[in-house]
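Exam revision sheet. Question 4 asks you to relate a sequence to its structure. Input first:
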Amino acid sequence: MKILARNYRCPAGEADLIALDPSTRKELGAETIAFVEVKTRASDRYAPPESAVNADKRRRMKKIADYYLAARKAEGFNVRFDIVSIVVREGEPPQIKYITNAF
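Answer key, structure tokens:
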């Protein structure tokens, strides 16, 4: 994937990453713009980091996507919402999980 924006800010809020996924062209007939939320925690003892992407955050991400796409007249692209879940425990390598089409 190609990163289009990092920490993208607009009146609707902030998206951690916006990326272009050209691999979907064959299957879906167009490239996909992925709006990616990154959640990092020191522990997943009580809940995994991705659980922090609640209904309110999902609504805001959809508004951010609408704003981004309208501002760039990005018609014809597929859109999806992904999550990167990272757990960083002291003395261990980070556990990274990429969740495609999370919501």
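Marking note for examiners. The domain at 2-99 is CATH 3.40.1350.10 (Trna Endonuclease; Chain: A, domain 1).
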